[in-house]
Design goal:
The complex is a heterodimer of chains A (about 230) and B (about 80). Chain A is mainly α and about 230 residues long. Chain A has one domain. Chain A is built from 9 helices and no strands. The longest helix of chain A is centred in the C-terminal third of the chain and has 26 residues. The two termini of chain A are about 30 Å apart. Chain B has one domain. Chain B is built from 3 helices and no strands. The chains are: A mainly alpha (about 230), B mainly alpha (about 80).
Chain lengths: ~230, ~80
């Protein structure tokens, strides 16, 4: 409360009010849920037929906008690398005694870790059929590793293994794109595999392969981030 | 559906304003996690299950975990 009355607080509050009013007036004229762009209408009408994926979001994320997805994965990679570089620079490893987790947390960790991992794999494996996908599955896998670090502190995730999985999956993403460029068509990440039967697991060409690569990459990246942060606590 | 969405938005606003006033940063982290949880339900109500899943995994679990780790390494109470 005291901060609010100071000059700094007053300036911050004033800025906040200006930004809020600006956002309200800027978005007041846009009707909610009204399709405005031709691109969106095109995706809705032709997405399923052209990509063979039952989940329309997947057909946009991993097929029409796959290059953007590659950029997103690269951003996450750079963030993880920067974090590990900052945390590793100049700090000495302090080997404090590990606190033992309570019985509830330790048991819950042992029971739920495989289930959460399985759910994450299911999410990115079925990304082209049901809601979910590479990023969601990878994030769920990352939260499973968070549970490991909270509950079973004695277990250690191998740093070299997560790094290997991360770089191999990133490499395979680019390789699939380059193969598509060579034999599929005239652009990067073009769908060169057969579309297959609608609603079956082996359908939609390269989309499941891309999602497996993204899921493994995001999952191992999050595991690496959590490992880096927990190391010195 | 409108009533449910309104209740969720009111909860979100309350939690978000609470973050501003909590002196104990652990409370603030839990409140921010509550905002993410409510956002997840809201995304699901607006028929965006893909986004809801990403928000649930990243906003509720990972961000909260990383904040808690960061608070453990620094200070818990705001001066």
């Amino acid at each position: 409360m005291r901060d609010l009355l100071s000059i700094r607080g007053a300036i911050a509050l004033g800025l906040l009010i200006i930004i809020t009013l600006g956002l309200v007036f800027a978005t007041a004229d846009i009707p909610f849920g009204d399709p405005k762009s031709n691109v969106g209408t095109y995706y809705l009408e032709n997405g399923r037929r052209e990509t063979g994926a039952a989940n329309l979001v997947t057909s946009v994320v991993a097929s029409y906008r796959a290059l953007d997805t590659l950029g997103e994965v690269a951003v996450l990679f750079i963030a993880a690398t920067g974090l590990s570089a900052i945390l590793a620079a100049g700090t000495k490893r302090i080997d404090r005694k590990l606190e033992e987790a309570s019985l509830v947390l330790a048991t819950g960790c042992r029971l739920f870790f495989p289930l959460i991992l399985l759910f994450g794999v299911y999410l990115f494996l079925h990304g082209h059929l049901t809601p979910g996908g590479g990023f969601q599955g990878g994030a769920v896998i990352g939260s499973a590793f968070l549970l490991i670090y909270l509950g079973c502190r004695r277990r250690k995730v191998s740093n070299t293994k997560t790094d290997t999985i991360e770089s191999m999956s990133g490499l395979s993403f680019v390789l699939i794109g380059l193969i598509g460029l060579m034999i599929g068509g005239s652009f990067f990440l073009s769908n060169f595999l057969p579309k297959g039967e609608f609603y079956s697991l082996f359908s939609a060409g390269i989309l499941p392969l891309l999602y497996i690569a993204i899921g493994l990459k995001v999952g191992s990246e999050f595991a690496g981030i959590i490992d880096n942060m927990m190391e010195e606590t | 559906m409108i009533i449910l969405a309104t209740v969720i938005v009111v909860f979100m606003l309350g939690a978000a304003i609470g973050i501003f006033f909590f002196k104990d940063l652990m409370n603030a982290v839990v409140a921010s996690s509550l905002v993410s949880l409510m956002t997840t339900v809201l995304f699901f109500l607006l028929q965006a299950p893909d986004v809801a899943m990403a928000e649930a995994a990243i906003g509720v679990a990972l961000v909260t975990g990383i904040f808690v780790i960061a608070i453990r390494r620094t200070e818990r109470y705001e001066k």
